[in-house]
Amino acid sequence: MTTFEQMSFGPMGAAVSEAMATSEADPIGVWAASLSLYSAAISRTVRLDNRRPVVVWTVLAGRSAIGRKGYALNTATTILSKVDGLGGFIHARRRSGVSSGPSLVDMLSGLELDSVGKDGGLDGRAILVEEEWAAVLKTQKRCSKFSTLFRTAWDGKPLSNRTKKDGLQSVAQPLLGFHAHITPGEWGKYVSSSEALGGSYNRLLPVLVERSKLLPWDNKPQVPDTSALREAFEWATEENRVMRFTREAGERYDEIRAEVEAKMAELPELLASYMERAAEQVQRVAAVLASMEMTEEVTPEAVEAAWAFVSFSMDSVEKLVKDAASESGSTRADKSPQEMIRDVLKRYGGETKASDLLRALWGKLNAAGIKAAVEEMDDVEVIQEKTGKRGAPRQMYRLIDAEDRDQDQEYEKPTLKVISFEAAKPKPKQAPAPVSSNPFLNALHL
Asked: Is pTM beyond 0.90 here?
């Protein structure tokens, strides 16, 4: 299980650790909120080497009261507000209640226009904080443009919207931070599958949170020393910074990408859709962490800390989606494992690969459960298909027709079969036997 200590890094990690002595919040929740606020604040000057923004969007998912979501955000805000310039950004650029695409463009466009002619050039930075995200999600569903514009803002690409009153509104360089709160129950109700498959939610890093401790009534929160974080923020915002992997960090990043894609291949499409941008999330978080060390080089240590946070988010998503599926009734308690396996095999025409069967039964049965159930089924056989001379054989599950079993009253379930699919050499064509001694008649017969 990933811990806060594994993802904590640099002066912000030290500040959060120190603040936790007098906070009931989940330290991972404080860390997530801090990453969103800090990354949005530095996004005008700090970018990836591919020109993508470094904004990190997080969501705290926890039950009301005992999740301490608001406590986590307040702790993060208290820490960062002690940093000169950072506290001013949070106060001046924090927004909420944006529930349509046009209102999103209008907000960011207004911020950019207000910065025209000022030192530093265009400044469209904003941090959208939705402490009652479920209520906003209900309204956002009514706007067909919101999801597309929201995704585009995370990508850092230009936004535009045309209205009858104001004409064309555009945002040349959207720099939008995002942080939201939701309960697990609301997640299942308002975070739609269609939006997830469309890519709306793979730009978010949801984390499950819960209260870390109960403190006495007279507890007084202590503000940690933020002098090191103040220096890091000044370094990050005084001029443009381009964050690049060191060779070792890049190699580790490639390993993480392969690990993420391997995990996605084993998951159902819906669940995998939440993780499609996990690799870039690691890159963004690592860049933010490296900037706190006042260097443009992203080190392997920063990548490891970033991966710890992103992998925790992936585990949180898996639990959220699984619980939502269970509560919606998609997991049928009245069906046995054997019945569920038969249903899946029938949907696949009586035969399917082991990986497809596992994917279809995700959240209901694991590989060991499927194996144990099939061992008790006399109408399902397991087949190992050899698809060539090299590589491991492919495992298949196949329904056996009842008629085939009824033909022999002493039918016994077949043992594991191995079928080879290596290409057989074609047999040479045999000439047909002559029908006549006359060559002319034989030619007519052919």
From this structure: no
DSSP 21: G
Give Cβ neighbours of residue 101 (< 8 Å, ≥ 6 apart): 143, 144, 145, 146, 148, 149, 150, 161
User: How far apart are the C-alpha atoms of 21 and 185, rounded to whole Å?
Assistant: 30
Residue carrying the six token digits 């969103």? 36
Q: 321: buried, middle or exposed (CB in 10 Å: 19+, 13-18, 0-12)?
A: buried
Distance, in Å, from the CA atom of 371 to the CA atom of 366, rounded to the nearest integer, reads: 9
Contacts of 14 (CB under 8 A, 6+ apart): 8, 224, 228
- Spatial neighbors of 148 by CB under 8 A, at least 6 apart, are 101
Distance CA 272, CA 192 (A): 14
Q: Cα(361)–Cα(373) distance, rounded to whole angstroms?
A: 13
User: Comparing C-alpha atoms, which of 277, 134, 272, 145 is closest to residue 203?
Assistant: 277
Please give the structure tokens belonging to residue 38. 């800090």
Grade residue 225 by pLDDT with cuts at 50, 70 and 90: very high
**What tokens does 414 get?**
């077949």
**In sequence order, what are the beta bridge partners of 208?**
61
Angle (CA) 73-76-80 rounded to 5° is 135
- Least reliable range by pLDDT among 51-65, 109-123, 151-165, 171-185: 109-123
User: CA 17 from chain center: how many Å?
Assistant: 26
54 vs 326: CA distance, rounded Å: 35
Q: Which token pair is 128?
A: 């959208």
In which band, very low, low, confident or very high, does the pLDDT at 407 lie, cut at 50, 70 and 90? very low
